[in-house]
User: Which sequence fits this backbone?
């Protein structure tokens, strides 16, 4: 695929690494390509970062036809810039496109877009351990009509945001509210798809939880309000009486790449990992009789995020004295070690860009 590159004539000053935060600053350029039914994808280009213009009837603004991905570019101590399992993101985005009737992208073209873009923006990949250049590929339907149908035009973009360490102040366990009113997804819906709409509908429960001091919501299944699904933008895992348990992918849970990687690492460490249904009653019982040893969320942004407290139907339960557990810590050390090049990549998960 040919990618036309137009460089900015006003390069940005780099932001100090301890002031980066998440998703607040953007690199100098962005990748764009356009789709038209009958013609396919074309006009692949990298242009200076800036506002885009949309027709007021553009499909995405009315019917929410949008999907996205999230991955990071890491810098090792020797200066290598690398991605973590990028083909997994590429395939998942095409699965999302399938569900949302958006056009798929050839895998090689997608990888070329990512690597060409990251190489051009390599100065924006920060240096310190834990910091990264967060990459956000996304696609939206862009028909210029209000008719409701499968789109004939779409836009694919990649933007990049230099991001600080998630754990600048150390790994502090988070407090999680188990939501029993709103639901995030149902089987047959879009729970397994990384689409903007899932997030729009989750905000209300998130707001409610944050008002009482809880940072994220743990979702229950939409039919029985009984089985644990996932946390906000993370999958969830538990250590109950020595067994590692994570909700099975029933169709309403996002198939996380960090989840998949954690399962592989845990099995390698010799743990029994069960992907199964886990009811909130079983969880509460384990919390009450001290059998819940550890709980953590896992996703690209935080890698793993220990859970120190749950709240369910007004009752609060502490996990592991509110401290990070040994398994959570080991997973964090293994995955970040591989990503930032401090540990041998024995799984072949690293893709070197430059
Ligand atoms: C992206 C995402 C995750 C985590 O997926 P990773 O591939 O590990 O980053 C989990 N849940 C939801 C809802 C997500 O959008």
Assistant:
């Amino acid at each position: 695929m040919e990618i036309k590159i137009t460089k900015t004539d006003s390069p940005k000053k780099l932001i100090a690494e301890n002031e980066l935060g998440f998703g607040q600053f953007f690199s100098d350029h962005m990748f764009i390509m356009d789709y038209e039914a009958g013609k396919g994808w074309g006009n692949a280009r990298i242009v200076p970062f800036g506002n885009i213009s949309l027709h007021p009837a553009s499909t995405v603004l009315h019917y929410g036809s949008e999907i996205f991905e999230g991955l990071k570019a890491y810098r090792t101590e020797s200066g290598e810039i690398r991605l973590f399992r990028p083909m997994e993101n590429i395939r998942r985005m095409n699965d999302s496109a399938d569900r949302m009737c958006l056009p798929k992208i050839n895998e090689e073209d997608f990888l070329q877009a990512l690597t060409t873009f990251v190489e051009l923006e390599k100065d924006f990949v920060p240096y310190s351990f834990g910091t990264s250049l967060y990459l956000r590929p996304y696609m939206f339907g862009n028909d210029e009509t209000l008719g409701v149908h499968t789109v004939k035009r779409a836009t694919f973009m990649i933007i990049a945001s230099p991001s600080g360490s998630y754990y600048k102040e150390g790994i502090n366990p988070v407090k999680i509210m188990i939501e029993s009113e709103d639901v995030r997804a149902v089987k047959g819906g879009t729970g397994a798809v990384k689409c903007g709409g899932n997030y729009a509908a989750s905000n209300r429960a998130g707001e409610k939880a944050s008002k009482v001091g809880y940072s994220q919501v743990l979702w229950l299944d939409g039919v029985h309000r009984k089985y644990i699904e996932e946390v906000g933008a993370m999958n969830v895992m538990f250590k109950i009486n020595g067994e590692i348990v994570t909700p099975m992918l029933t169709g309403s849970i996002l198939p996380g790449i960090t989840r998949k990687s954690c399962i592989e690492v845990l099995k390698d460490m010799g743990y029994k990992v069960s992907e199964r249904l886990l009811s909130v009653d079983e969880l509460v019982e384990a919390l009450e009789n001290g059998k819940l040893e550890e709980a953590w969320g896992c996703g690209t942004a935080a890698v793993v995020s220990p859970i120190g407290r749950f709240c369910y139907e007004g009752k609060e339960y502490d996990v592991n004295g509110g401290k990070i557990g040994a398994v959570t810590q080991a997973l964090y050390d293994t995955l970040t070690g591989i990503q930032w090049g401090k540990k041998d990549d024995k799984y072949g998960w690293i893709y070197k860009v430059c």
About this structure: Residues 174-339 form a domain with the D-amino Acid Aminotransferase; Chain A, domain 2 fold (CATH 3.20.10.10). The longest strand covers residues 153-163.
